[in-house]
């Protein structure tokens, strides 16, 4: 009797609360609603996985990732979003405006993290950047502003440029403001601007034929699922037609595009992991502000420039964050 | 005791050690806490200062980088070169989003942006803007924090290009401070954050908080620091946004007016204290263990001898008084044990005597209890048996024998001049039979006799060997030796004796004698009860019987037979006889009027009235004759009685005379088939019944007489009325002739009449009319009296009736100079009644009023009140004195004074009016003041026929 009481007393001392935070045993399921297949998206996915891993989410242990790609066809997003929800994911990661809108339409309860979205304001996704509201948060990509910057870069690099073409899928709600910015920039720079609205793969080929016909000097390419999915085709056609082109992200330059200016998408994906972690720890997505890119990078491809028979001006080289050759 | 003492010792010991240790630990902890807190705060303050420095140096680094291009000559470089420099600057400082070059006049020369298109030479005048003004004045200017799209924190910096070279303005994205802030590590969970001058969060490891524009002023530490920026706000306990208690310190960056906070969760800061506490607790537990062990050892040494003593005391306590303790500790405990032993010895000694006493006392109590129980039992029997003494005596005998250890008990009661057996207990039935036959008289011979004689308790120690004892036969029969007799006494009389016997020789103790006396008293009470009860019952029965006869008398005023039957029935029931009859005297005979009973008798039989029969003797002698046994009568005196008795097998008789005004009208006779005296009560009761029978017979006689008288009166009255009616008719016929002829003569039908004769004729006429009125009135009255007046019911109108009356009397009133008026409201209902007679009544009243009024007015008023007509005749005449008001409605009554006599009249009018109104079911009344006038009021039902029918 007395002995037992003593044991209780001793046992009690070892039960002083410890500060150790035990990771709970559940498995988190993340659904990814992407524009392109995973193999085309490796850099971003790696960044996301790295971010999650740093926060204790390891695929195969307590994390399961369901990847769905629209393969460039934005009209497939609603079906894919439903598919993910039916599979019972805890959270959906999206890329681009149509994916975000499809996910938001599909659920008001499952949290949505937009790994990248051109401009979340004004397209019915979030109420404000500081307080998005609802079940959505994520990272924005400055795509509207940067459309003008690309025109400036093209004109700086090729001062003789007179006619600029803007290739974009205007079916994407994020696109029209980009076209307006492009037109305004062109006017400032004293060049003409022509829109090449592409909504399917054949339209890309047709657009390049038109570019040739209309003596377009340089091409600014917007970002969209269709364009991402057909990046190789576009880069190949630009090379074929010896057309200087400025792209919205470095993945185009990696496969032979001339130059890109835009946010670092892998960085956005990496930071998305932070938002996912906060949500998994109980934060409401609507309370988490939409973040802007910290890093804007200029990537140029010397080999492509050489192929075009052109050298980058010194100012551009100095400015470039990365130079591929 | 159990483990009590042992536990107490241990607890005391452990408690002492604990107290010392706890005080030690508490002091230790207190000092450690204070020390640790001071150290933590110091460390944090240093961290805050360091963080502030790092952030400031981050900003200063940007300033330095800008300063690289900010030279006076730089502004003169070609634009491409300047643009290139700006681009390079942006490359080196990622935080700079936008750079603007202003010339010395404050005009924009170049703008290079990461997001927007570069602008060259726009010339926009920004000379009045704070960045330009600030930079020109101080060389460097830091703008306030602002938020792009209300989300991203930015700050504008401006650096002057020397004294005359213009200014470079840079927009710095403060999100880059995040890197700095995130890298500031304070302990394990500590962190730093930066707050702008308005309290808005500028940098925080959680970037979301910054982007959301969190207002940090709601934290007390931030509010306090902002409120007093110059003072060194002491570091202290606070809470963070998550509500976690933290230790907070801050430092300011004067150039930017920012505050840098460093916070560590209080728990973490106090970890050393907790560790110290845990160590102290372990020490405490160890101390407790040691103390418990030592305490147990010490306690055991104390407790073992005490336990031994306890065990010994327990054995002594449980009755083992011979047990002795053996404790050799050589201290107080041994002395205590010896004391125990001495006490046990003393206890052992006194115990033996005590036991005997208790035994005696218990026995006494037992006996006392038995007595009480027996007494209570007897009382219960008494209360349950109010009419029968037998069960009480039986239980008294039972209880007495049982309680006094007697072999037999018996109770004898005084009855018929001797003490006879009444109840017994435990006596063989054969012996009882013998005793039952005995009748003891007071005397020294028997025990019962001796007890009765002396009136006290008598005891015979050994009856068979007592020479004075006379009934040795009885003692031998019952095998009794010691005998005791207890008298049952009431008011000094010995009404019985209780006897107890023992079949061995042993005197009854005084105690037993006391008990037996109590029992004897109880037996007396029971006997008393029964006697009182019986008396009460008999008295009640008598009263009931008397009341019954009286009831029959009152119900039967005209017939004597039911009363006689009731008297006979009551006499038989209550006077203890089987058979009763009433014999009435009828001249020289006696007539048997009523009989009830089992013995032969013939109602209507006559026997001569003489003294040879019991009834005759009773009637003639006018006294009750009691014959307990016919056989003992003298045949010469009672010949008839003996003869009748033989015929009807009667042995006992009782006859009570029915006396009236000194003579007997008969007698009530009780008969019994066996000889035996009637009790005095029975005799008294029979006499009462006889008196009642006389009353009943008298009643009937008187009643019959009255009935005959009243019938004769009625016949006489009818004859009178008939006579009057006839007479009036006979008178009226000749009178009509006289009046008729006189009238004709006065009218000159038989020639002229001389003056004198005319006056005579008029007087004849007037007197004739007066006589006719008188006869008519007498006729009406006689008709009414004879019951011949029949109302002729018809509908009438009061208004018409009043109008008729007024028109008939108008001339009369006018002659006397009186005002004649009426007050008849419109809408009176139609009445039903004899209109002619009612008009007659009203005419009579109005006529009277005019007649007895010399001045003033006569008014007729009509009204409807509660279904009746109220007709009033109001005059201002002489009035009627109160004593006369009742008389005026009687026949032949007039208020007797000179004035009325002058007015004439038959004095029958009001009487007839009253009769008519009453025939209508109404009333006539008068109210009057002498000298002021009278009001006659007639009230009749509106529908008189309904009233009449209802009355019939």
Give an overview in words.
- The complex is a heterodimer of chains A (325) and B (952).
- Chain A has 325 residues and is of the alpha/beta class.
- Chain A contains 13 helices and 12 strands.
- Chain A has helices at 2-14, 42-54, 77-87, 97-106, 143-157, 175-189, 201-213, 225-229, 231-240, 250-254, 265-280, 302-307, 314-319, and strands at residues 28-34, 63-69, 91-95, 112-117, 136-140, 163-168, 192-197, 218-221, 245-247, 259-263, 296-301, 322-324.
- Chain A has a 7-stranded mixed beta sheet with strand order 7-6-8-9-10-11-12, with helices on both faces. Chain A has a 5-stranded parallel beta sheet with strand order 2-1-3-4-5.
- Chain A is elongated and about 60 Å long.
- The model of chain A is unreliable at 1-23 (pLDDT under 50).
- In chain B, strand 19 (589-597) and strand 20 form a beta hairpin.
- In chain B, helix 1 packs antiparallel against helix 8 and helix 9 packs parallel to helix 14 (510-555).
- Chains A and B meet through helix 1, helix 5, helix 6 and helix 13 of A and helix 2, helix 5 and helix 8 of B.
